[in-house]
Amino acid sequence: MATHLQVAIPEHNLLIVGPGVLGRLVAQNWRQEYPGCQVFGQTVTTDHHHELTKLAINPSLEWTKASHKFPYVIFCAPPYQSSDYLAHLRLAASCWNGEGSLLFTSSSAPYDCNDNGFCDEDSPVVPIGRSPRTDVLLKAEKIVLEFGGSVLRLSGLYISFSEFNKGAHVYWLEKGIVESRPDHILNLIHYEDAASLSVAILKKKFRGRIFLGCDNHPLSRQEIMDLVNKSGKFSKKFEKFTGTDDPLGKRLNNSRTRQELGWEPKYTSFAHFLETI
Ligand SMILES: NC(=O)c1ccc[n+]([C@@H]2O[C@H](COP(=O)([O-])OP(=O)(O)OC[C@H]3O[C@@H](n4cnc5c(N)ncnc54)[C@H](OP(=O)(O)O)[C@@H]3O)[C@@H](O)[C@H]2O)c1
């Protein structure tokens, strides 16, 4: 009878804080890179522990018993579920043994631009105090950078795959009429690309760096929903945006991130993604 030799490779073990849609894709990519490694998942509830176990992600809730340290830690939990996001971030950072990488998936929201202008990795961010939403992200980034970790600022994530159907277009399609202005420019990245980019950063063992995740094809809200309507891939039709005076957006470009990592997205634009579904 064949026997299976399970070789654990501790130096590539990965802790995923927030093994949601992105975290699970990171786990999958990581295991392809390092077969035999162990992947751990830190959550806020036990709601998805069964699913995580089936995906070979060892789930845990036990921050207080966080005596175990990991060579690779990725924090990819969104802020809205946490009683104290910054405290959780500090705990996550203290679970890193300082050897491989620590990465925080932040957002491109803090870039200080709301006139549909151009931004890249080095564009200025809003000052602390302007909005609670950007404050929490900037403070979280600061914690990670001080620990020697790196930050990946992600643009709008989307996916359409089996049970996962997420993204701004899904939300707007559900509503049909949305009270936001149509000409606001948005930036997108497919969840699979955000995962491959995260893994590319983790593998390089950077210290204290900020990267940007986007597909370099900014689109207005109207352009996104026109593409959705014209694609014929959805049963519903989007009606309209009705806003007139809410802020505009920005046009992101991450050429520096791509060049440094030798990374390119699989879904080069939202239009390309629609062709694939
Ligand atoms: N969605 C976007 O457009 C967008 C844009 C820019 C950046 N991001 C960032 O991208 C990352 C991934 O987002 P996602 O959509 O993959 O998230 P998601 O699917 O909503 O992930 C939720 C997971 O995080 C866990 N979680 C939440 N708060 C936690 C905490 N404080 N400590 C530990 N676990 C926690 C949840 O635990 P339970 O299983 O207990 O519920 C769940 O497993 C996040 O950092 C988010 O801020 C998202």
TrEMBL record:
Keywords: Isomerase, NAD. Belongs to the NAD(P)-dependent epimerase/dehydratase family. One of its GO terms (molecular function) is isomerase activity. It comes from Cajanus cajan (Pigeon pea). This is NAD-dependent epimerase/dehydratase domain-containing protein. InterPro entries: NAD(P)-bd_dom_sf. The lineage of its organism: Eukaryota, Viridiplantae, Streptophyta, Embryophyta, Tracheophyta.
